[in-house]
Specification:
The protein is 24% helix and 32% strand. The protein is an alpha+beta fold. The strands form five sheets. The chain has a six-stranded antiparallel beta barrel. A six-stranded antiparallel β-barrel has the order 8-9-10-13-12-11. Strands 15, 16, 17, 18, 19 and 20 form a six-stranded antiparallel β-sheet that branches.
Length: 501
């Protein structure tokens, strides 16, 4: 068997080599045979290349990226302890856990803050951002950076482990404009549709766009009673750091939230995204209640096999079989029985058990739903008042309140006492030292470090801690700050940055 990929690369080179020789009729025949071989491999070749279609597709990719990319954000996360000492919550499924890669902790000694990264996207002008639960789990500080370089501190609004959806917020100034995404309809996606995955893979390839197709819908990665299933599967390149970024259609509309990858030692190369219709329902609950209210049918369901279809007298191998019914549950009260096959919800056909879970997940507790079932080879209608799963544990706040000036400037200071001057070898008679810098703050990113001596802030001489606090309190969010400092290694230097948002 020929390796056509190898042959197709080498053969043209052989043709060029032969064309340069001075052979006779026999060699000319060999060249012609080789050309015929190549034509056979290529198949029917059009007389003119259709570059217009390719250019149109490129234009569609550019359009979608241009519309969506300004709304994508890079998220840096700080945890209080290394993963080895403070593991990720157990409710995070394994396919998600591999997506969040904190660096190793310091060997020995006390735990040191660890940093991770992920992606997200802006959903309104007021600074609400969607990302993954596993990106922000156990976070103590969050920093968000936009494609244009603006950065903000963020706070956690709400988070849901079962869908791996989280909501965070930045607080832009009135002068700042944030571009929100446009939502698409994940129900209208079809296998084979082009999609783009946007995000920050590996934490270093900022604001990357990759393209692929919808490889499958309704994928289920975990089997737990409360988990909301139905992931979009795509072959668009998704890597650690893409977590929480948007999956968009060719109109730049968000149709999913990039969440997990399948790969590892036996690399598969498929990514999974939470359908945006489901994510929007979760977002609405997080905003209204602070947690997700889960509709409960009270039955366990299983896929329908060909044997099931024959036993139950189904027209096709489709539907969701009722495998068990919890006593006193909404399904039990509505009359569902073991062996019933749910074939439609509100008149719309149910093809798989995953499809039933997904469509029920978009309902709310208390909703009345009409199910069509097959029992004893006959179709029946059952009306169920959906119950509610118990709420999961609420997430802790991301950060504790801090002094206003420290919050704004991104660092805290301490007086330069005679003891400190002697200890650090500083000749200056007055001034203040940087005592601590807020992790992931613009100040830290600009180069403000502990033990730097603050000489001036915005050309105002600094002599006391109160000078710093007074200046900090007078600054508006997103103001430009110019520090003149004396650094132990660099000497006197200037550091410029914008304050926290």
């Amino acid at each position: 068997m020929h390796d056509w990929r190898w042959t197709g690369l080498v053969l043209p080179a052989l043709l060029v080599s032969s064309a340069c020789g001075r052979g006779g009729p026999a060699e000319a025949q060999v060249r012609e045979d080789r050309r015929a071989d190549l034509r056979e491999q290529l198949g029917d070749v059009p007389s003119m290349a259709d570059t217009a279609t390719a250019a149109a597709l490129s234009g569609a990719f550019r359009y979608a990226a241009d519309r969506a990319l300004p709304s994508v954000v890079f998220i840096q996360v700080q945890q209080a302890a290394p993963v080895a000492q403070q593991p990720l919550p157990q409710q995070i499924p394994e396919p998600f856990r591999r997506f969040f890669d904190f660096g190793p902790g310091a060997p020995g000694g006390d735990p040191v803050p660890q940093q991770g990264f992920g992606s997200g996207f802006i959903i309104d002008d007021d600074g609400l951002i969607v990302t993954n639960h596993h990106v922000v789990a156990n976070a103590t500080n969050l920093m968000v950076r936009l494609p244009d370089g603006r950065d903000y501190t963020a706070e956690l609004v709400g988070s849901d482990a079962d869908t791996d959806i989280a909501l965070i917020r930045v607080r832009p100034s009135e002068a700042d404009h944030l571009q929100a995404v446009e939502f698409g309809d994940s129900e209208r996606l079809r296998v084979g549709d082009w999609v783009l995955a946007l995000g920050n893979p590996l934490g270093t390839l900022d604001f990357t766009v990759t393209a692929g197709i919808v490889s499958a819908k309704g994928r289920s990665l975990e089997e737990t009673p409360t988990q909301l299933h139905s992931f979009i599967q795509t072959d668009a390149a998704i890597n650690p750091g893409n977590s929480g970024g948007p999956l968009v259609d060719l109109l730049g509309r968000v149709v999913g939230v990039n969440t997990a990858i399948a790969g590892g030692a036996r690399f598969v190369g498929y990514g999974f995204a939470v359908p945006i219709n489901l994510a929007r329902r979760v977002i609405a609950d997080l905003l209204e209640y602070g947690f997700v209210r889960r509709p409960r049918l009270g039955v366990s369901i299983a896929p329908v096999t060909s044997a099931d279809a024959e036993v139950y007298g189904l027209d096709e191998v489709a539907g969701a079989e009722v495998a068990s019914v919890e006593q006193g549950s909404p399904g039990d009260l509505a009359g569902l029985r073991i062996g019933d096959v749910i074939v439609a919800l509100e008149g719309e056909p149910i093809r798989t058990s995953t499809e039933l879970r997904t469509r029920l997940a978009q309902r709310r507790p208390g909703d009345e739903v009409a199910l069509t079932i097959v029992r004893d080879r006959q179709r029946r209608s059952v009306v169920v008042d959906l119950g509610e799963f118990p709420r999961t544990q609420a997430q802790a706040p991301v950060a504790q309140p801090r002094e206003v000036a420290e919050q704004t400037l991104g660092f805290a200071v301490t007086p330069l006492t005679p003891a400190l001057r002697q200890q650090l070898g500083i000749a200056a008679s007055d001034g203040v030292l940087v005592q601590a810098v807020s992790p992931l703050s613009p100040a830290e990113a600009a180069g403000v470090r502990p033990r730097q001596l603050i000489l001036q802030i915005n050309r105002n001489t600094v002599r006391t801690v109160e000078d710093v606090r007074r200046i900090g309190r007078e600054l508006a969010p997103r103001s430009v700050v110019s520090l003149r400092v004396r650094d132990p290694q660099l000497g006197e230097t200037i550091i410029n940055y914008r304050t926290n948002g």
